[in-house]
Structure formats: structure tokens, C-alpha cells
Request: fold
Amino acid sequence: MNAIEMQGIGVRYRSEKIRSLKELVVRGLARRKAPYFWSLRDVTLSIASGESVGIIGANGAGKSTLLRVAAGIVCPSEGVAISRGSIVPLMELGTGFEAELSGRENIFFNGALLGRSRAQMRSQLDAIIAFSGLEQFIDAPLRTYSTGMVARLAFSIATAVDAETILLDEILAVGDAAFRQRCDERIHSFVREGRTVVLVSHELETLVRLCRRTVWLSHGAVVADGASEQVVADYQRQR
Amino acid sequence: MIVRRNVAAAPLRWTDEVRDLAAHSNLIFELVHRDLTIRYKRSLFGFLWTMLHPLLLMLIFTIVFSRLFRRETPHYETYFLSAYIAWNFFSQTTSNSMASVAWNGPLMKRVRVPRSIFTLASNLSGLVNLGLSLVALLIIMLFARMPLTPSLAFVPVSLLVVGIFTFGVSLMVTAVSIFFADVREMVQAGLPALLYMTPVIYPVSIVPDGFRWIVEKNPLTVLVGIVRDPIYYGRMPSPQAFGTALLISLISLVLGWLIFSRLAPRFDSRL
Ligand SMILES: Nc1ncnc2c1ncn2[C@@H]1O[C@H](COP(=O)(O)OP(=O)(O)OP(=O)(O)O)[C@@H](O)[C@H]1O
Ligand SMILES: [Mg+2]
Reply:
């Protein structure tokens, strides 16, 4: 069974945007339509349930966009994406946090964003706080946290709510060495439990260690898809 | 097992959205809770502020207008407030919905939530505040020796109709304001104008004949009327007025959803 299936996925944006109604009226129909920019084009990909897959590629290659389509955050302009089982996305630069709320309150808020009930979060609360290592700061407002601390909390929450699939977008980059070590272990145990992991990372060694398979994206298209060692080696050679 | 299909440019289906919202009922609760507590935490009077607001307005408007409209409207304070609480709900909620979607845009890029959830939560917080204003109004009526009639029991039904209308309008304006940022300002500017086209502050009878059609064709006149009838006039709205109001709300809801569901798949490009 496939956890994620993509058929001819394309995501396009218009490079030039009309941002106001006034502008639209003033320029009216005289404006020429700006050309499309394709963040993803004709991507067909399936990820089996229980697989761990890495995604690599240059900045702007479409990696985050791919995860967003898989998570249902972005609606594709072409094609169909099907996901089976619950998905928790952990996108770059923090998840849904509220700066004024404390770390503890944010655990509940973030849980709600992921469709979890208060009771479900309460049962995980201690585990989340312990894993994040933020016991001392958990009742301080989130705006007082450092970038790494926010990332710790986000990772701890996302991996504590039991989802069949987890999508991780460069979240390990800001953690310190000790925390990264623990994240690695946790991702490993995820894979062992038969859950699906999709990991976007620029840290190729980590990626090879955690993922059997790697997909290489370039300019919105899949250029290679196979055993991580092979794909990463090709990717490094090409650079 | 949850199976989700993410298909190119497909408009949202309302059945899916309702199911999705139900699955996120806890988030709706959290959002409403956050709206209300953030609002009240900051003010010294806490929850009382929502109650004080109509009281203050009543004082101002009663002092300014009650002499003017004394002949047409005895108990001006109740005449004014019975319509104003409904009006205020409408105007605050539509503005808050747009602000909320703009504010929560970054959130919508990071997690998948039902796209209408922020609009719905703003409407629900608005309803809670409306309930509080209604309590304040009832207290004022007691002090003003207004008779409390059995028809008051009908007020929640009228407010529900106003709520449906407001939700429809909110869906419409939030969807459009994601694409055109200036829509928010246009609505903010338009709302006070609309207030003066609705018989909230003044009675319809003082409107010159030449302009009366504007007031009469304004859908908000009917909506405000079905709230004012049971509170101020102590009578049930006429079946005709109520039917019209219900029809207007349902049209608003359907139209709002049609626009929202078609624009929603492209929201992410503008957030
Ligand atoms: N809302 C948007 N409007 C216009 N262009 C966009 C939008 N979102 C993404 N893009 C474009 O899509 C392309 C792919 O973006 P994406 O975030 O998927 O890249 P990425 O592979 O994750 O890059 P990075 O390694 O820097 O995180 C980029 O060129 C970006 O400019
Ligand atoms: Mg990215």
C-alpha cells in the first residue's frame, strides 16, 4: 500500500501578481497575463507505507512545495495526490505557534492544529516536554524562546502525536548536536515501527543514514530516484 | 484509514468541509477561546467590557438622539440598542474574519486545516460577544422599565438568522480579500456608510420619501428588523419579514460558499 501517491503533479505560480482590486480595475483587461512559474512540473511519485524517503535538491527546487502538496496544504494546479493515513507535516521555520502563549499552552494549540484533542495532548504532555528538554522554560511565552528551542518543541510535538506519516522539512538544521542525535534516534525508531517518513534535508550524511531511498528534485522535476547512496553520490558529483 | 485526495483546482465540496470542520472541533474551540481571552485579558474590566460597550453607546446615543426622535420612538435606548447589537455583530465579525485570515496566513502554509476554519471561529466568537451584549441590553431594559415580553424568547432564532447571513458575507469577503488586499480597507470604509443606510440609529419614518427605497431595499434593514421586533416592539416578526430574512441569509450563505470554495484552492499562492 502507498502512503503517498502523486500523479503528474504540477504547481504553478504567476510571477507577477495583481495585489489590489484598484490595480485590477485601473489596468483592466489591457494587462498581458504574466507567464507561469512552475514550482513543480509533472511529478509522479509513490511512497510506500513504512518507507523512509529523503528529498534533496538546490534551493528553490520545489522540495517544500512537494511536501505541502503531500500534506494537502497546497492544492496542485495539475494532477492528483493521494495520501493514506494521518499525516503530520513539520515545515521549515516553525509550525503553528502563538508567540504570546506559553510553551505548554502551545503544545495544546499545536495539537489542535494537527486535529488532536486536548485529552490526547494531555496524555502526551510529559513525554513531549521531556523530549524537548525545555522543562525550565515550558511556562514562559514562546516569544522568549530561541530559534533552536522553538524547533525542539515543534519536533517533540510532531513526533509525539501518533501519525502514520511524518513530513520533515529541514527542521534539524537549527538543533544543537545533542538534540540532533536524539532526533535521529527518534526518526530511526519511527522507521522501525513501520511509519512513513519523508525528510527534506541539505545534510546529506544524515539523510543517507536515515533514509533508504532518496529523490532528487531539480527545477520542479524529479531527476533521480533510488537508493540514497547512489542518488546522493550523483548529486554531489553534479555540483 | 483517512484517505485524502488532493486534486488540481477542484473547488472544495461542502460535505468534505463540514466533515473536516467537525474533525477539527477542538481547534475551533481553541481559536474561539483564544479570540475571547486575548480580547479580555488586555482590558482592565475583563469580560465586563463587552457589557459596558453597549452601555456607553447607549448613553451617548440616547443623549444625542432621544430628544430628536422622541415622538417616533419612545424608549429610544432600547430602540437603538436592539438593532445596534445585531449591526455591531455583523460589522465586527466581517472585519474580524478578514483580519483573522490575514493574521493566520502563515499558519495555513504550515499545517493543513479546513480553509474556512478561521472565518467560522471569528463568527462563533462574534456570537458569544453578541450573547453578552444581549444580556447587557436586557439589564438596561430592566432599568429603563421596558416591559419584558414573551416574544423575547424568539430573539435567539432571529440572531441565528443574522449569524447565517454574517457567515455568508464573511466567507465572501475573506476569500476575496486574500487575493486583493485593498478589499479589507474598502469593507472597513463601507461599513459605516452601510450603518447609515440601515434604520439603526434613526426610525424609517424620518427618511425622506425620495431616499426611502435605499433603506427598504437594504437587506440589513430586514435582518435588523427581525431582531428589533421581539425586543423593542414585543411582537413576533411577521412571517413575511422573517421569511425574507431567512431567504436573504440562505442566499448569502450559498453565495459566500460558492465564492469561497472556488477561490480556496488558490489561497496558498497569496498567503
Ligand atoms: N506562493 C508562492 N508564490 C510564488 N512563487 C512561489 C510561491 N511558493 C513557492 N514559490 C516558488 O516555488 C519554488 C520552489 O519553492 P520551494 O519552497 O518548494 O523550494 P525548496 O526546494 O523547498 O527550496 P529550499 O531548499 O530553499 O527550501 C521557488 O522558486 C519559489 O520561489
Ligand atoms: Mg524548502
Remarks:
- Residues A 63-64, 92, 169 surround magnesium ion (ligand 2) (CB under 6 Å).
- The radius of gyration of chain A is 19 Å.
